[in-house]
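S1.2 Input.
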Amino acid sequence: MTDERVFRVTETPPNTLQYRFDGPEDAPVLVIGPSLGTTWHMWDRQIPELTQHWRVFRYDLPGHGGAPAHAASAVGELADRLVATLDGLGVRRFGYAGCSIGGAIGADLALRHPQRVASLALVASSARFGSADEFRRRGVIVRTNGLEPMARTAPERWFTPGFAAAQPAIVEWSVQMVRTTDPGCYIAACEALAAFDIRGELGRIGVPTLVLVGAEDQVTGPGDARTLVAGIPDARLALVPGASHLAPVEQPGAVTDLLLTHFSAAWQDTLAAIPAPSFAPRLSAPVLPVAELTAAPAQPEAETGGRADPYGPGMKIRREVLGDAHVDGVMAAADDFTGDFQELLTRYAWGEVWSREGLDRRTRSTVTLTALIASGRLEDLAAHVSAALRNGLTPAEIREVLLQTAVYCGIPAASAAFTIAQSVIHVETTPPA
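S1.3 Output.
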């Protein structure tokens, strides 16, 4: 057996991921995925013990850790790149552990490539990450201000206050990971998290799954973890005291022990008999069995005139463009008198027109802003300024659109539009305190 404690790093083509191997070549492969804004180094303190039993494969997200900046805006696309990378290396079956978006990639693999995944660990992860609006606004902030606001607030999202105060060097290291990330790839990953929602599919994850969460995680906390274990048939919950979102960094010993126990047990019947690791748990983290719950079956799309009803796709696009909060407010206000009109808007404006491939969403936002100003229908302008930012227009580009309307639509209309847009842009692009 060749013991490769010296890792190998490879830079890969656009449809694959940058990766490294640690551990003996003939051991079973354990794939480990990072969280948004971090690199594979977030797992450094787990490697010495994991490589006693497995060949550990770590990867970086696009634009993270010096990886090529080939942005991917869907979790499924990231999972496909990972599969392509592993295919190129001849790795067919593996265990998988991932943190946050890394966990989402693992869940996607278990759903779409169940024959590849022997066992799964979801660390600080979720079936749906907060609200889509939250992540799209984060993308707007990065597009406008760069990554400094995200770097500055990373420690409070990732660590407990006591750890952050006691470990300033680790805090600075975490901030630097964010600062060195490619902004476009960070924004694309935010889009991927905004669109990710597997709550209705959890029952199809058929591999033994450890759901591990820091007891003080304010990003994807114990509530998110319990949703996962309630939906996944063969899942157990591990709650790590004294840890927030980056539990592998904050409580490395406890996380390592839990991963060793889970993967050693789960692989006994699926890959090979792996000697049970000998270790004394360094921090009590309860692992709780959870009874199986049946997920609700997906509802088929209605058919109209021999083709799919555009209402469902229209509502999806409407939410992506205008935001969940806006759409929820509009739909909640609809009654027997206005409900049919909202249905018409969703089905035809969003499902038929906004869904067409002839123009991208940036261009459609530009056209919409101009049309609203030209027609004097400024009551909807604020919502579409927010939508324009979400669709990738910068404040400077919106300003140019409004200047152009001043020439062709008149100074008074443009003046009112500038007032509305200025207020919206200030709110949407101001970083959190």
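S1.4 Remarks. Confidence is low (pLDDT under 50) at residues 1-8, 271-304.
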